[in-house]
Amino acid sequence: MYKHNERQMILPDEFCLPFGGKLNPKNRWCQLAAIIPWDEVEDRYAKNFKSQSGQAAYSVRVALGALIIQNRKSLSDRELVEEISENPYLQYFLGFKSFVQEKPFDPSLMVHFRKRLGKSVINEINELIAKPKKSDDNDSNGSDENGGGPGGNGASGTDTNPQKQETEKSGKLILDATCTPADIHYPTDLWLLNEVREALEEIIDVLHEPHIGSNKKPRTYRERARKDYLNIDKQKRKSAKKIRKGVGQQLRYIKRDLKIVKDLSLKSPLTLLDKRQYRNLLVCNEIYRQQLEMYRQRIHKVEDRIVSLHMPFILSAP
After folding, report:
1. 227-246 pLDDT tens trace
2. Dihedral (C-alpha) 61, 120, 115, 235: value to the nearest 10 degrees?
């Protein structure tokens, strides 16, 4: 069940602080709260709740606001809840009417917020933020429809200066897309290395194609590598020892594939690769370097760690 809450937005000076004082309206969280059309967003969010009975869900301002804060501050679910309970500006951004010291919600609810505010809903919200208000449209069109002078050319008797009209129509557009989800697989080292190995095998096939019939194709042991990966990946409970063993196996397969690619590049130009394959080759080298460093040092973090072969610009949180 969902109850509408965002029909009447409170102002920063209406937020109650038990220790006295008022919120600064120029604070970034107050300004961001003012430009998001919460009422329209709420209408779209409420469509996720078919039943009119049961426990009332948290408002869309709490759900969406929490995701925006988490993305901007790069916080975990637990750290996010603690940060909100300590910061009155964040509580105002979430639609609270006064400051509360208790935790606003359980960290586990962030899973439900991310599920309900999917990719399509976030895209609609971004469009709502970017869309100009109706009042702004009417103001900009009013001089053309009702401001015509006696000559009927659409110019009024007082606003004849083109520079003045241009100044009145100028403005500042603020867009916010900090809460757009990234559609990537959960980044596990074993899965990522398997993706790298398969991408290298595809590159090997392309580079060897001109030499079919004249040179023997290098052995990549792809079937054995795939079997080794599935033997561990399909297990419901994977111990750290088994995962490390699987990572070590895939690293050795990748090392062999990279050597094969290097040898083939002496016979076949890399121009045979398309843009995607060439980019994958560069990313594969970097992922192999990072994963090998973590494997040797027995760590799980590395600077600028890549978590997706196909979207290498998405880096893991520090």
Report:
1. 999 999 888 888 999 999 99
2. -160
Residue 122's nearest CA partner among 73, 79, 84, 71 is 71
Query: Position of tokens 């009013």?
Result: 142
Q: 240-264 and 275-297 helices cross at what angle (nearest 10)? A: 140
- Tokens 């973090």 belong to 301
Closest CA to 12 of 58, 26, 64, 129: 26
User: How many residues comprise the chain?
Assistant: 318
pLDDT band for position 185 (cuts 50, 70, 90):
low
pLDDT in tens, 194-230: 999 999 999 999 999 999 989 899 998 999 999 999 9
Exposed e or buried b per residue across 219-248, where buried means at least 16 C-beta atoms within 10 angstroms of its C-beta: ebebeebeebbeebeeeeeeeeeebeebbe
| E strand residue ranges, the chain | none
Q: Which of 216, 192, 218, 189 is nearest to 203 (CA)?
A: 218
Query: What's the rounded Cα separation, in Å, for the pair 181 and 187?
Result: 15
Helix, strand or coil, per DSSP, at residue 306 = strand
